[in-house]
């Protein structure tokens, strides 16, 4: 069940999940990601990290969708590669670059940083930042890409248990 | 699994026993509980997290919010947790310096510093 790549063709995800941007579906994404990661050979000790990281990425995506009033699904790609398991969480929120009315996500984040005392500590903006902090603290191989069609968080874990330290 | 919450009073402390998963969906319930306790005049809280299976940054945000509220009344918010996978989240976010974390409810209730 490895993802196959032929000349000029993108790697097909092992499992692709799309869900409407609602908090109650984030748990489903965590469960599916952990199940696919386990099957792919990610070390048992690391599965908790996979679960947490994918949950954080999906939570952030759900928050961005809601902040931007976007009616688009959150997309999660789970891909089993030769020696790693990768997860891509796409936001697909058009407002993320500020081309829609309302507060663009990036500016809201900047304001939260500039005036940390001005918003409640449990506000959405701060949580987005804390979510990213958790992901960067947990995952060694992580990439956050802010694109015109929304943002993407890419993460990967080795599937060889010998190098997957607890 | 959903979130379970129960509260009890031990001396001048209010112990909030939390079970299940604290995430973006369930965290608002915990927030409501903490806000309600503070509004009712309970300013010394002990949050027992021994029954928590999952905690994410949304849950951390709610706990930080609770801490801010009790501190406004010169209160305290102590955590009880022995689970490595939960403690790890507090460590990587630097929140072990913000919250007193105890190994038992008895220890948290007796703590005065």
Polypeptide structure, described:
- The complex is a heterodimer of chains A (166) and B (113).
- Chain A has 166 residues and is an alpha+beta fold.
- Chain A has a single domain, classed as Histidine kinase-like ATPase, C-terminal domain (Heat Shock Protein 90, 2-Layer Sandwich).
- Chain A is 39% helix and 22% strand.
- Chain A is built from four helices and five strands, in the order E-H-H-E-E-H-H-E-E.
- Chain A has a five-stranded antiparallel beta sheet with strand order 1-2-3-5-4, with helices on one face.
- In chain A, a hairpin with a 2-residue loop joins strand 4 and strand 5.
- In chain A, helix 1 packs antiparallel against helix 2 and helix 2 packs antiparallel against helix 4.
- Chain A is globular and about 40 Å long.
- With 113 residues, chain B is of the alpha/beta class.
- Chain B has a single domain, classed as Transcription Regulator spoIIAA, CATH 3.30.750.
- Chain B is built from four helices and five strands.
- Chain B has a five-stranded mixed beta sheet.
- In chain B, strand 2, helix 1 and strand 3 form a beta-alpha-beta unit.
- In chain B, helix 1 packs parallel to helix 2.
- The longest helix of chain B has 15 residues.
- The radius of gyration of chain B is 13 Å and the shape is globular.
- At the A-B interface, helix 1, helix 2 and helix 4 of A face helix 2 and helix 3 of B.
- Chain B: One of its GO terms (molecular function) is anti-sigma factor antagonist activity.
- Chain B: This is Anti-sigma factor antagonist.
- Chain B: Keywords: Phosphoprotein.
- Chain B: Belongs to the anti-sigma-factor antagonist family.
- Chain B: Pfam families: STAS.
Please specify the SSE layout and strand pairing:
The complex is a heterodimer of chains A (166) and B (113).
Chain A: E1 15-20, H1 26-40, H2 44-67, E2 73-80, E3 84-90, H3 105-114, H4 124-138, E4 141-147, E5 150-158
Antiparallel strand pairs in A: 1-2, 2-3, 3-5, 4-5
Helix pairs in contact in A: 1-2, 2-4, 3-4
Chain B: E1 4-10, E2 13-22, H1 27-39, E3 44-55, H2 57-71, E4 76-80, H3 84-92, E5 101-102, H4 105-110
Parallel strand pairs in B: 2-3, 3-4, 4-5
Antiparallel strand pairs in B: 1-2
Helix pairs in contact in B: 1-2
Protein name (chain B): Anti-sigma factor antagonist
Pfam families (chain B): STAS
InterPro entries (chain B): Anti-sigma_ant, STAS_dom, STAS_dom_sf
């Amino acid at each position: 069940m490895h993802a196959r790549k032929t000349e000029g063709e993108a790697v097909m995800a092992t499992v692709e999940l799309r869900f409407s941007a609602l908090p109650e579906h984030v748990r489903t994404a965590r469960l599916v990601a952990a199940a696919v990661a386990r099957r792919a050979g990610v070390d048992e000790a690391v599965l908790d990290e996979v679960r947490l990281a994918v949950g954080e990425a999906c939570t952030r995506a759900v928050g961005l969708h809601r902040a931007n009033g976007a009616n688009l699904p959150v997309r999660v790609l789970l891909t089993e590669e030769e020696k790693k398991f990768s997860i891509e969480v796409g936001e697909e929120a058009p407002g993320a670059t500020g081309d829609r009315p309302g507060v663009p996500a990036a500016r809201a984040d900047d304001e939260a940083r500039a005036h940390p005392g001005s918003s409640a500590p449990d506000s959405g903006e701060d949580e987005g930042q804390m979510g990213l902090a958790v992901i960067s603290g947990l995952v060694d191989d992580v990439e956050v890409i802010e694109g015109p069609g929304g943002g993407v968080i890419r993460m990967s874990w080795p599937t060889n248990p010998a190098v997957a330290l607890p | 699994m959903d979130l379970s919450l129960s509260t009890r009073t031990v001396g001048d402390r209010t112990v909030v026993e939390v079970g299940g998963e604290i995430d973006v969906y369930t965290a608002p319930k915990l927030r409501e509980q903490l806000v309600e306790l503070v509004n009712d005049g309970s300013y010394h809280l002990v949050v027992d997290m021994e029954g928590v299976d999952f905690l994410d940054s949304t849950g951390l945000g709610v706990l930080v919010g609770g801490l801010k509220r009790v501190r406004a009344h010169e209160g305290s918010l102590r955590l009880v947790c022995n689970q490595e996978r939960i403690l790890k989240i507090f460590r990587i976010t630097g929140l072990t310096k913000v919250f007193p974390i105890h190994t038992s409810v008895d220890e948290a209730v007796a703590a005065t510093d």
